[in-house]
Amino acid sequence: MRMTDLIIKKRSGKPLSKGEIEFLVTGYVSGEIPPYQISAWLMAVYFQGMSFEETGYLTRAMINSGKVFDLSSLAGPLVDKHSTGGVGDKVSLILAPLAAACGVQVPMMSGRALGHTGGTLDKLDSIPGYQSVIPEDLFRRGLIETGFAMTGQSKDVVPADRLMYALRDVTGTVESVPLITASIMSKKFAEGAQSLVFDVKCGSGAFMKTAEEAEKLAVSLVETGRSLDRKIVAVITAMDEPLGRKVGNFLEVEESLACLRGDGPEDLMEVTLRLTAWMVVAGGIVPTVEEALDLCRSRLADGSALDRFLANVSLQGGDREALLERENKARAAYSLEMKADEEGYVESIDSFALGMAGIPLGVGRNKTEDAVEPLVGYELLKKRGEPVKKGESLVRIWSESQETGETVRDMIRPAYRIGQKIPELSSLILKEIKAL
Amino acid sequence: MRMTDLIIKKRSGKPLSKGEIEFLVTGYVSGEIPPYQISAWLMAVYFQGMSFEETGYLTRAMINSGKVFDLSSLAGPLVDKHSTGGVGDKVSLILAPLAAACGVQVPMMSGRALGHTGGTLDKLDSIPGYQSVIPEDLFRRGLIETGFAMTGQSKDVVPADRLMYALRDVTGTVESVPLITASIMSKKFAEGAQSLVFDVKCGSGAFMKTAEEAEKLAVSLVETGRSLDRKIVAVITAMDEPLGRKVGNFLEVEESLACLRGDGPEDLMEVTLRLTAWMVVAGGIVPTVEEALDLCRSRLADGSALDRFLANVSLQGGDREALLERENKARAAYSLEMKADEEGYVESIDSFALGMAGIPLGVGRNKTEDAVEPLVGYELLKKRGEPVKKGESLVRIWSESQETGETVRDMIRPAYRIGQKIPELSSLILKEIKAL
Q1: Model confidence, pTM
Q2: Residue A183 catalytic?
């Protein structure tokens, strides 16, 4: 087999076989196939696409390039969720203990904040003492004892994806649906999940800006999963304004606690309940999403979801007393408010601009090596559709310096649009695509 | 400027600017831009193409990547010809002395045989003593004294093309019209030609199999040349059967001598005269192609073209006495004939198959490092449209062993198709595209 022939085959729009994809991935990882051939193939994939079956072969070959977590000795069902990333997206912190309380085991391996999107690990690290990256045995213990555990992605898992992503990043081949699909799916399956629920975000604060793009990715995820005999649900959700009201690492832990007590913002709860319910269905706990939603609501009401969360905090070294003490109190030193210039209704909030405002604050970062701050962030006092009086506060910002706070206020101001009519509000759940 | 951005720009179908193309070429040659970024860009070019202006920028940047022969002190006009390669294509050997006899200076830098196509340098090397690769000062002297000189492509000329071609070869990006255009044109202009005539071959024995492909390349060559303010003529010629009757290194020198004496095969003379005439027009010697054809015919008739050829042989170290003595006599040791199985007319001769038959004989080679043989080859005793009796010889083969001769006969046999009707014969000149 010659790599040049495989490039030409793909260039001509033909799908590669299982053996050809395996040859390509193992050859790249071993160094036998040089990066300049892989990048030409990646660009050919960008233009010609891949069939779902072919994407499945790529996913499988990438999984086999490194360590595969074998969690099959656990009781299961093992179901994980992946989000394509948004602003104020703290869903994982609520969903994991809630799904666990419903009887699903959630082996959650998360990432860190980058660019305009936050990171679950950074949020968890704002809990006093919490170790967001833990050894494998503790991770297993967490799954057994509390039904879920949180950790970072292991370097040994899917080395092919790390190599290939680095190459895609500098060769203009990031924006390819089959390549994105294989990258996401290979990591999740290598980490031990049996079934997956995807939150494909769509809108100004998401990577997929249009409904068309989001649906293309959702279909690719579901159909590739189907070709691998996996249960997959992709929920397309709106990301036109930040999810919930709080954005910031500890601020988002607080808002998650509120949700687990049944006191969360409506938009955040809608998305979280729907995603968790699909995990419960994919895990085979109950047959319908309606029953799963009822089960989720009762696990919130009886406090068992909150218990799971707090049990996990203790298991991963966190100080639950300190956490609860600091709740709604611990804030960065400087605080300022952004006030409305005019009366009306909040017509829209540009979530991309709000996400970017998190970078100078220290909620997020531009480069992976930058540090983040636990106690900075902002609270949206007014969200879409809410009435506003002139001079009323729209956003409260907490920062490490007065200057940064002012900079961030200037960044956030143009993101708020005030209109004279009540805007039409609709469900954040835009579409659901399933292979069950 | 970041190479990643240039890849994305091209991927999105936008033309790169002069500065961007220069950045890319100089960065690649200096090693600052890694091959994996260049190959991704090459594949994006494969899919998105390049404007003629952009192809001109690429041509110019490639020329400037290495040594440029400055022949502007010569009287001129300096005009060269390039053929996309065919079987039995000995046009250069006749055209160069003929154009020189008409008053054009022809700085001809040629290549060697590869695959099914022959190489001018290999043919010249079959002349006893002839040095087909000569130092620059002798090359200049040849241009001044005999109006033309023959040599190989210098390694210092257009290093960007050597690097890029090697990369294209292993990344499935050879078949791109703008890349082919820049590769051909950059070498010819760096070698000192002011104007160019192209023989774009079309048919089974050519790289361009269809009229559409050939025209696309011809238009690209002419329009890119126009964007560089150069005079260019592209003549699309049929390559459905080998050109002339003799294929082999010394055999083709012999047939060229016959042409220079006014005694060449009709098809070969038609193509050669047309191409030479356009060189005479592009060089500004006479204004119309009809006048140029008349001038060419008179230079053949008065023997001055043959004189130029023989003067060049002497200048480049060849033994003209030995050449003329061996003419029509020197042959490889073994000879055999392929005979007709049936009566009829030669309907077609697959020139690709005949070209490939040259490889085991030693007319050509599979790999650049292989040697060729001077005295092997074959003569087509019957060409398209000629009547054939059963048992009559179609082809005479000369080989270095009986076994090879038989192998080659077996390769050639299916290439001949005998029919019962006289096939329609038409001009080999299919189309002419000009920027004058």
Answers
A1: 0.89
A2: yes
